[in-house]
Specification:
2 copies of one chain form a homodimer. With 97 residues, chain A is an alpha+beta fold. Chain A has one domain (7-96): Transcriptional coactivator/pterin dehydratase (Gyrase A, domain 2). The first copy, chain A, has 3 helices and 4 strands; from the N terminus they run αββαββα. The first copy, chain A, is globular. Chains A and B meet through α2 and β3 of A and α2 and β3 of B. Chains A, B: Belongs to the pterin-4-alpha-carbinolamine dehydratase family. Chains A, B: Keywords: Lyase.
Chain lengths: 97, 97
C-alpha cells in the first residue's frame, strides 16, 4: 500500500507533475488534468489503454469524458490524499498521450 | 440529423426513460443516470461497448467513471436539448447493462 506523500519528496513529485500541466485540486488533496484529443475514438482509445494500466496497478482514476476531452482526477482514498501511486499513474498518462 | 423532442412524443419517450431510472437534468434539457457495476473492469467494459455504439451512432455521451460507477448525461448539442438519439442511446445503455 502506498503512503501519503509528505515533505520534500512531495514537493519534488508535485513540481514534476505541475510542470506537466497537472493542477492541485483546490478542494482536496488531489491532482487534475484535462487531456484533449483529435476526436472521440482517440480519447476513448487512450482511456482504454489507461484503464488496463490502472487495473494492473489496482489504482483507478476518477475521470470524465466529453467527446474529445478527458478530465482526470487522481488521489489515493486509502491515505486520504496524494501518494506515489498518483504520481506513477499521472506519469504513465502523460507518456501515453 | 435528429430533431428536438417536443409535445406528446417527448412525453411518451421521457415517461419510458424515467421509468427506467433516467432523471431529467435540473439545469438543462438532458437526462442523467448512474450505472453501478461489480467492479472497475465491469464498469469500463460496459463503457467500452457503449463507446463503440456511440461512435457508430455519431452521438456521444457525457460520462464520468469512479471505480465501479458510471454517471451518464445525454443531450443533443445540435438541437440544444433532447432528441430521439438520446432516447435511442439511453435504451441501448439500459439493454447492455
Amino acid at each position: 500500500m502506498s503512503e501519503k506523500l509528505t515533505g520534500a519528496k512531495r514537493e519534488t513529485v508535485l513540481a514534476g507533475l505541475t510542470g506537466n500541466g497537472w493542477v492541485i485540486d483546490g478542494n482536496r488533496d488531489a491532482i487534475t488534468k484535462t487531456f484533449k484529443f483529435a476526436n472521440f475514438v482517440d480519447a476513448f482509445g487512450w482511456m482504454t489503454r489507461m484503464a488496463i494500466i490502472a487495473e494492473k496497478m489496482n489504482h483507478h482514476p476518477e475521470w470524465s469524458n466529453v467527446y474529445n476531452r478527458v478530465e482526470v482526477t487522481l488521489t489515493t482514498h486509502d491515505v486520504d490524499g496524494l501518494s506515489a501511486l498518483d504520481a506513477e499513474l499521472a506519469q504513465k498518462m502523460d507518456k501515453a498521450k
